[in-house]
TrEMBL record:
Protein name: GMC family oxidoreductase
Keywords in alphabetical order: FAD, Flavoprotein, Oxidoreductase
Family per record: Belongs to the GMC oxidoreductase family.
Organism expressing this protein natively: Sporosarcina siberiensis
Entry coiled-coil feature ranges: none
PANTHER family: LONG-CHAIN-ALCOHOL OXIDASE
Amino acid sequence: MVKTLDKVDVVTVGVGWLGGIIGAECAKAGMKVVGIERGKERSTADYLRVHDEYRYAIRYELMQDLSKETITFRNSRKMRALPMRQMGSFLLGEGLGGSGTHWNGHTWRFLPYDFNIKTLTDEKYGKDKLSADYLLQDWGITYDELEPYFDKFEKTAGISGEDKNPFAGKRANGFPTPPMVKTPILKKFEKATSDLGYTPFMLPSANLSESYKNPDGQTIAACQYCGFCERFGCEYGAKTSPEITVIPTALKTGNYEVRFHANVVEVMKEGNKTTGVRYIDTQSGEEFFQPADVVVLTSYVMNNAKLLMVSGIGEMYDPETGKGTLGKNYAYQVLPGATGFFDEQMNVFMGAGSLGMTIDDLNGDNYDHSELDFIHGASMSITQTGVRPIQSNPVPADTPAWGPEFKKASIHNYSRTLSVGGQGASMPHKENFLSLDPDYKDVYGVPLLQLTYNFTEQDRKLHKYLTEKAATIMKEMGAKTVMAGNPISDYDIVPYQTTHNTGGTIMGASPENSVVNNFLQHWEVENLFVVGAGNFPHNGGYNPTGTVGALAYRAAEGIIKYSKAEGSLV
């Protein structure tokens, strides 16, 4: 029997960055908010012994339990999709803070070009630059319109950086805190890229260079450069995360509550409105209905799309006809790069998740694509994140895979190896999409999400071009041996690549080509908001978190406006 609870103003599904931002802004506005989180409660105190590579990086302590819920995957519609049984290509977070707990902290603003990519590409290169199989479209919002929300997210997170990127969109304010320490490794990259005619700058970082108090009164500590960021929580409270910023801000209002071990399985709807959500207490097995005036899906890309699908909200995308928007425009990234082996030893074991330098000369449309058979590019970076010994055994290509020669080469090269890599933007393709699996279900009896995805010719050509650029940079840095990345063929769900999945619940200017408007309000269900990287019509050359954070602040503004005068916001 389902137990009905007292109605609230707003319920969020997921309590990471997005649920925390929505919760804090709405609670500060006097609204009663419940955040529903299927994982457990946790805080900085839980990470006092976090420097355990095996527990966190190999056995995925902070990640989703795939024995209870996973996704199925196939490269094409002709293949049978099979369940992902262990973490591989991307890492799905679970628990308070979500992926905002175990992230590295790279905090970018997508380029102005990204938001109007269809219009700008057509104007400069013609409408046939990419074939009609690529579903390129504008976002329904411009960079300038989103800039105040970027600014707000960066001030909340205290982002450390420097305003030296000549290709970035205009900023109303500088970074809240100075850039991180420029190490000898980063200086090596800086000199090489400068000599090659590029413009290097320090990577925008949520590992703070100094202690900082944000506008909500939350204090974030200074980074200790311990090298345990990605896949780990921060025991210093120095890697900005939802647990030390927006969630405490929401809680101190007295208008906010978090329910843990609560898995939402359905968004309830009557007519063109949602009435609330149905969830299962994963410890007791009890079912509850949480009524709300506004429902906000703030979980990960995959789960937001899945919840809409199982709830029958929106028209599913059909790759055969091109009709429907739900599940459309799933995009990932490619990772061009090169590894260099040096004579001198370097302190690679130290670092931070976002300690790095970048060039944007090869990102977006910052270089001419007239004679190239692809569009977009990548931010090209060197990062000093802290090389951990279990996962990192770099050896030259001609080294045996095991035995005494491997051991000798591994020990010798551990502190003598650097890599330059890019996050290659991925363009949406009609055959890459999300849907519901017809055969497999999760432990709660709900169909699994099915991912149909493969790299395209656009991806392969972009990857090849940028890999050659990365090898040139590495050679200029003085490596005695340079190993360029292998060409990509078919996408595989292992090994790890990035947790930068986008699309499926895309935003746009009309319901004909998008799921939500530019306040992330659902076109068909007016009191339902869907927030996350699933809103991106294509993927970019950066980590998505900064742009997701900006969209969340805009959505929060929209929710508050909607609560005062119901109806569409556009």
